[in-house]
Q: What sequence folds into this?
């Protein structure tokens, strides 16, 4: 009988036998069952008696039952099919009994917080919609509002208010005859605009006033915005050691996202993002590429050095352009790299060694004195030291550190260096080319210097060989430059997405100096003597040539320590 009982109950324990009361034993009395309280908000069904009790009901009974969780889960699943259960009862906290009353209270508090948060969000959205509508209405109503009526605190100016005033001032200046206030002059509007732009973009008034003469209003703000945007990272392939295709494949394998730079460059690559530092890769250490801005490649492309030529880089440090010249010369001929700053010579030597340049001679000399040391070069590159107004995106200190006096001083030094560069070239050589470049966009340092050298030496401007860029300026403020300066090329950050740059290419026609001529002021620009070869005339004899006799006042001669120092690489 025992085996048959176990056989009937394979999945569990054998059933317990019911105890029958023996004779003489009193049967236990069973208390009557209490009627169950009906469940509120529930549909009548056959499973309504199995519905769970709430903690409040159990607390009223004075004790808490212990129940089987599996059974209660089963009961709950059965009730969901036939009984509409409120949302709060579906929480797992209501499934098991024995939870503290504080749990239900905490859930109630969270729901209240959520309701308050939703209410605040709706209120904020409404406020923002009202503010946007008010702004649109203010713009529509403010078309006739004078910018002088828009005031802000001087100690803590509101940028939004100032930008609104800038927009109103631009609107008036674009249609000054009809939109102006009769009681205000154009100068007052311009002064207000300069002051507001200085507050928003962080420039000194002298710099903004200079840019306003150079650009139209709409283009001015595009230029200012571009100066606050970083330029793309670019690198140049060293074809002395590798090819661009192989270098790109190696860097892509290291997690560098890049593309070819442009059609005008066969060695440039533009980097969008990188997982590794570009200045510490094995390819960089091996000299397979040089981190170099796209604009600094342009002067070498225009110079177009050939094999077995004698080439001079007058302001060579830190060596980006010098190594590119050696790369195009294929390590043949003679390449002279000069710089006046001994500290920068160290970086120049390091880059020459890393890039595998073997045809270079490094000199440390003031560029203005170089014709005394060497001459007879086929090509000379002068990347002159400048104010750096084209590289504000890389050096924000230019916004507040370059005054009109600094620009005039740079222009004076650049004229002396360019005159020396022309004297270093042999007009009878195969090239007789001088490339002049700066990382500045001010006409005093660019077209003004070219206009000066065209009157002081037998040279002419020729096409740069670059099929893009903006032509040089023939008019700026009260200045009028030689018509041929349009052959030079200007590059702007807001137009070409590269650092601001200027490139001009000159060809030397004769080694003899031109006869004396008169400036616009009627003063002698040259000593009225018989023409002499440029190689035989000392540089000191032409000190008067360095003066700003082309429609400018005299400058100081205390820039010799900075000659030959270039910062555009």
A:
């Amino acid at each position: 009988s025992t085996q048959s009982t176990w056989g009937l109950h394979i999945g569990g324990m054998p059933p317990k036998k019911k105890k029958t009361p023996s004779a003489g034993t009193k049967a236990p009395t069973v208390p009557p069952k209490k009627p169950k309280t009906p469940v509120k908000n529930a549909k009548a069904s056959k499973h309504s008696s199995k519905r769970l009790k709430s903690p409040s009901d159990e607390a009223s009974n004075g004790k808490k039952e212990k129940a089987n969780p599996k059974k209660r889960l089963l009961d709950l699943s059965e009730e969901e099919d036939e009984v509409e259960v409120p949302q709060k009862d579906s929480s797992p906290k209501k499934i098991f009994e024995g939870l503290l009353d504080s749990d239900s209270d905490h859930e109630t508090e969270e729901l209240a917080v959520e309701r308050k948060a939703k209410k605040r969000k709706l209120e904020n959205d409404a406020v923002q919609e009202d503010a946007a509508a008010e702004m649109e209405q203010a713009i529509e109503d403010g078309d006739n509002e004078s910018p002088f009526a828009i005031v802000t605190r001087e100690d803590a100016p509101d940028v939004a208010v100032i930008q609104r005033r800038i927009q109103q001032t631009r609107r008036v200046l674009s249609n000054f005859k009809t939109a102006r206030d009769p009681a205000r002059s154009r100068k007052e509007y311009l002064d207000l605009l300069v002051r507001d732009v200085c507050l928003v973009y962080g420039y000194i008034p002298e710099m903004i006033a200079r840019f306003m003469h150079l650009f139209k209003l709409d283009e001015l703000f595009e230029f200012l915005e571009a100066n606050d945007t970083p330029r793309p990272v670019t690198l140049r392939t060293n074809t002395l050691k590798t090819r661009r295709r192989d270098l790109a494949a190696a860097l892509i394998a290291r997690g560098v996202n890049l593309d070819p730079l442009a059609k005008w460059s066969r060695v440039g690559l533009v980097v969008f993002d990188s997982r590794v530092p570009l200045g510490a890769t094995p390819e960089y250490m091996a000299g397979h590429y040089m981190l170099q801005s796209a604009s600094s490649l342009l002067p070498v492309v225009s110079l177009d050095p050939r094999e077995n030529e004698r080439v001079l880089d007058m302001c060579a440090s830190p060596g980006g352009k010098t190594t590119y010249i050696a790369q195009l010369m294929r390590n043949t001929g003679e390449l002279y790299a000069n710089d006046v700053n001994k500290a920068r010579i160290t970086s120049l030597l390091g880059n020459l060694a890393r890039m595998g340049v073997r045809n270079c001679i490094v000199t440390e000399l003031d560029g203005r004195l170089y014709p005394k040391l060497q001459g007879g070069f086929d090509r000379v590159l002068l990347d002159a030291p400048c104010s750096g107004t084209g590289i504000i995106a890389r050096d924000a200190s230019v916004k507040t550190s370059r005054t009109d006096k600094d620009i005039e001083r740079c222009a004076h030094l650049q004229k002396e260096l360019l005159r020396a560069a022309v004297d270093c070239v042999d007009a009878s050589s195969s090239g007789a080319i001088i490339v002049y470049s700066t990382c500045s966009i001010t006409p005093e340092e660019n077209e003004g210097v070219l206009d000066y050298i065209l009157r002081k030496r037998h040279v002419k401007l020729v096409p740069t060989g670059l099929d893009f860029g903006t032509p040089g300026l023939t008019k700026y403020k009260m200045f009028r430059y030689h018509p041929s300066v349009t052959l030079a090329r200007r590059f702007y950050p807001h137009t070409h997405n590269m650092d601001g740059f200027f490139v001009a290419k000159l060809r030397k026609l004769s080694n003899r100096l031109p006869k004396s001529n008169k400036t616009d002021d009627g003063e002698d620009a040259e000593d009225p003597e018989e023409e002499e070869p440029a190689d035989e005339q000392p540089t000191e004899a032409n000190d008067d040539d360095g003066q700003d006799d082309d429609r400018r006042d005299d400058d100081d001669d205390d820039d010799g320590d900075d000659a030959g120092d270039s910062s555009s690489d």
In short: Residues 101-141 form the longest helix (41 residues).
